[in-house]
Write a structure and sequence with these properties.
single chain, 324 residues, 6-stranded mixed β-sheet, 19 strands, elongated
Length: 324
């Protein structure tokens, strides 16, 4: 039994080495080499080859020297075209960058930065995947260009970036050359936000020296950058004379709003509960409340800010294996 398993593993490893694929490193960078490019005749190339074959048969049948000349000229043109199609991908440097977080049901962006390492133009470079439409660019000599693909996010948790295809049919469309790009990067997919009814009933109001982080009106706390929706009465106008930034006075001292988002207060199956808690986190962050999160086997103390939000959302995405 062990011998069969070992034999299958060796066959799989050998087959994997035969595959022509470009695997990016941890920084998402790879270079297309000699053994990483596939090339086959395109549909038009097959039609072209059939016409050349018929022309060759006719020339042999009628012993027509001009027919031989034209036939061999077309075949030579096709062979030169095949070389240029292959060289259009050879020694391109590929850099993959993708969104780090996304909500389930949404799409995330994968940027493919293509750089020329040979100081020659690379027209009609295209990229796609099974889940994304074709994107195309013309790359100038020694320059870089970025193709952006939008891919759908699956279920919550860590998700691998699917293999991407970089291809070209330049110059005559007779041959199709491509390479597969594999990226080790992973996307963290958050639960799809649902609805959490009665969230305002969970609010806990308390007196605090800094109030609700600058939305009070009792005591001046500090200056902060202007945000859309701030009252013109709170703008610190003298700051405009000293710099280009617009500052607002920050007040506190009235009350602080705090909320605990608890697994026990939600209803439904696991995914429904996680969706409700996700919606609660987003609303609490928009309202600038201090919020904590209680999950089975995990408790996160109340806090606020983007780091706190992403930490809570990450725990929802990885539930119940928080260490994944």
């Amino acid at each position: 039994m062990m011998a069969d398993s070992f034999s299958r593993q060796k066959i799989s490893e050998r087959f994997s080495r035969l595959l022509r694929k470009s695997t990016a490193n941890e920084q998402g960078v790879t270079e297309i080499g000699l053994r990483q490019i596939y090339i086959i005749p395109s549909r038009y190339g097959v039609i072209f080859a059939l016409m050349a074959l018929l022309m060759l048969i006719g020339s042999i049948n009628y012993n027509n020297n001009l027919g031989f000349l034209l036939c061999f000229l077309l075949i030579s043109l096709a062979l030169v075209s095949m070389l240029h199609t292959w060289r259009n991908l050879f020694q391109l440097q590929i850099k993959i960058r993708a969104d780090e977080q996304v909500f389930s049901g949404q799409s995330y962006r994968v940027g493919i930065q293509i750089s020329d390492l040979q100081q020659r133009q690379r027209p009609a470079i295209q990229a796609d995947s099974k889940q994304a439409a074709v994107q195309k660019t013309d790359l100038r000599a020694g320059q870089s260009a970025t193709l952006e693909l939008r891919l759908p996010a699956g279920q919550r948790g860590w998700q691998n970036i699917p293999r991407l295809r970089l291809f070209t049919v330049f110059p005559l469309g007779l041959f199709h050359a491509w390479t597969w790009i594999y990226s080790p990067q992973k996307i963290l997919v958050y639960p799809k936000p649902g609805e959490l009814p009665g969230i305002n009933e969970l609010l806990d109001y308390r007196v605090a020296s800094r109030g609700d982080r600058g939305r009070g009106a009792d005591d001046f706390v500090a200056l902060r950058e202007y945000q859309i929706g701030d009252s013109p009465r709170h703008i610190y106008w003298p700051a405009i004379a000293r710099s280009d930034s617009l500052l607002c006075k920050q007040f506190g001292g009235d009350r602080a709003e705090q909320i605990w988002l608890d697994w026990k207060t939600t209803q439904g199956d696991t995914e429904s509960r996680l969706s409700q808690l996700c919606a609660g986190l987003l609303q609490a962050d928009r309202q600038q409340w201090r919020y904590g999160l209680n999950l089975p086997g995990l408790s996160i103390n109340p806090d606020f800010g983007s780091k706190h939000l992403h930490r809570c959302l990450k725990m929802l995405a990885l539930y119940p294996d928080y260490s994944a």
